[in-house]
Amino acid sequence: MAPRACKVPGAKDGSLKSQIRVPYPFALDRCFGIITSLMNRKKISIYDSTLRDGAQGEGISFSGNGKIRFAERLDAFGIDYIEGGYPGSNPKDMAFFREIAGVELKHAKVSAFGMTRRASSSVSEDPGVTAMLDAGTAVVTLVGKAWKLHVDDVLRASEEENLAMISDTVRFLKEQGKEVFFDAEHFFDGYKDSPVFAMQVLNAAAAAGADAVVLCDTNGGTLPDEVFDITTTVLGEMPLLLGIHAHNDAELAVANSLAAVRAGVQQVQGTINGFGERCGNANICSILPALELKMGYSTVGQEQLRELRHLSLFASDLVNVRHDRKSPYVGRSAFGHKGGMHVDAVQKNPRTYEHVEPDCVGNERRVLVSENSGKSNVLLKAIELGEGVKKSPEEVGEILRALKELESQGYAFEAADASFKILIQKVLKEHRPFFELEGFRVIVEKRGKDEPCVSEATIKVRVKDDVEQTVAEGDGPINALDSALRKALVRFYPGIAKVLLTDFRVRILDPEEATAATTRVIIESSDGEETWGTVGVSENIIEASWEALVDSVEYKLFREEEQ
């Protein structure tokens, strides 16, 4: 419906109020309030869709209890809206809505997601709409078609019927007292195909009383300048509360979300870590720092932003996927410096190679060491590990030479800080071993075609004047060796009982040598409070693993001595 010129009662000629053009039948005072809000407010509402849209990503699945824990964590973090799921699609989502109703959230509102009524059906009897009501949430998010292509080829309905489906469903849900967000699916593609039809879709939702209309880049292929221009045009024609929902198929979801904010939207939808179908959704972990630290908007607040990395890690742990170390802001590598020139500059002024301070998002600066390192890397890394405060330039040079020699043999210390600490001690002749190996034997036995392999390790170690020999079984030869080693040492060092291997990675360094190739093993260990990495290299995978295991245990024992 085309906008018409309207004059707000009591408005003086020439004032802003006297110039407002609004789409009938919007209330004039409501429209003016929205315009004033757009001009003055700096708050951007954050709508998290991880539990629904994010869960549609390949390899992403939340347990029932996990959904509740995640919602509680989002609430504590300061997220405004939490989309709990699609109650009409599966029992797990409906169970979530029943359980979350008994949880006292301090800040966030929970939203149920659904679709408009079906074509040629009554909205009050539509099972999807009924399921949204049964979810019992104060907020419902409704998706409808904004691309004529989908109306013709997917719904196979007329344009008039599609608009009626939208307006009927929004109006019905508003009559039930719900806060209603309308997601205009494929809006940007639809607008480029037929601006008139796309705007009619928005008008239908707005006229029926939708509290906000969300522009969706559902295929994820729109460019940021297109998002900005189209969103600006929409706001120029319809002064209403707008949101943005972007997918990442062209790796532009974050950029498109920020472009929409710059154009004037006040709600951003996305998922933690960018989880989502195909290439994912707009990553809230990248959007929040950009809005708070770079664009001058308020979201969760800068103090809460310091918990961002912890939230990101929590989400990955909850769905049992490896956290993306290269993720902007929150990844382990986000503030990792490896090149000698970079490290030297960061030492003098962190702003030279860091666009924000790491602790603003709960991260930390890391100095990486490799064959590309200079003395600055080595010295700063040594200081970081508590080993470099009094080191002379000659000692640092000696460490650097040893480092480069070992890396030429296949060692890599970027993910093995604990092994690098021990290397420093050995080079400077400050290393004191906590035990000595007398010998070990590992047996892998298969007792029948249909029987599983059995791994057994026997180990003999000397601790001062005592000799301990133990045997242990494991899921594999390395697990058995690890169990036997800790079993042998726990009498002397009880803290070893807390250490667990959390990751085990193997890389063949010269595959052209086939089974005689050199193998690098990286082990990640944890005692529940700290996590550390160690490395071993050998032509024998068991020996490489043993080397990494020894470093892991000795690092734990060094840490206990320091405390």
Describe the structure using short key phrases.
Double Stranded RNA Binding Domain, TIM Barrel, 563 residues, 19 helices, alpha/beta, 3 domains, 19% strand, elongated
Task: Sum this structure up briefly.
The chain is α/β, with parallel strands linked by helices and 563 residues long. Helices cover 39% and strands 19% of the residues.
Per the CATH scheme, the topology name of the largest domain is TIM Barrel
- Low-confidence runs of at least 5 consecutive residues: 1-41
> What is the end-to-end distance?
72 Å
Structural class: alpha/beta
Give a count of the beta strands, DSSP E runs of length 2 or more: 18
Could you say how many structural domains there are in total?
3
Strand content: 15-25%
Instruction: Name the strands of the widest sheet in spatial order.
Output: 3-4-5-6-7-8-9-10
The quaternary organization reads as single chain
The CATH C-level class name of the largest domain: Alpha Beta
Based on Cα principal axes, name the global outline: elongated
Report on this structure.
The protein has helices at 28-40, 64-77, 91-100, 127-134, 148-155, 159-175, 187-193, 195-207, 224-237, 253-263, 284-294, 302-305, 308-318, 340-348, 375-384, 393-408, 417-427, 477-489, 541-562; strands at residues 4-5, 21-22, 45-48, 81-85, 109-115, 139-145, 179-185, 212-217, 242-246, 267-270, 336-337, 366-367, 436-445, 454-463, 466-474, 500-508, 519-526, 531-538. Helix 14 links the parallel strand 11 and strand 12 (366-367). The chain is of the alpha/beta class. It folds into three domains: 43-300, TIM Barrel (Alpha-Beta Barrel); 336-408 and 419-426, no CATH class; 436-562, Alpha-isopropylmalate synthase LeuA, regulatory domain (Double Stranded RNA Binding Domain, 2-Layer Sandwich), CATH 3.30.160. The protein starts with a strand and ends with a helix. The chain has 19 helices and 18 strands. The chain has an eight-stranded parallel barrel with strand order 3-4-5-6-7-8-9-10, surrounded by eight helices. A three-stranded antiparallel β-sheet has the order 13-14-15. Mean pLDDT is 84; it is low at 1-41.
